[in-house]
Amino acid sequence: MTKTGYLIGMCPLFLGMEVRITCILPEPLLTRELPCIVRRIELHPKEPPTPPGAACVVLQYQPLGVLMEVADKDYGQFRVPGDDVPKGHFYVRPVFNKQSAWVFEVVPKQKLRRVRKQVPLAPQRALTHFGIAARSGLVAFLNQPPWMMKDGDYGLALYVMLSRATTLSDLWLIGVPERPYFEGFLHERNKTLVDRMRLFERLSVESEPAAEKYIQKLDWRQNAYVNRTLGVSGVGQAKRRRLTGKTAVA
Question: Structural domain tally of the chain?
Answer without folding.
Answer: 3
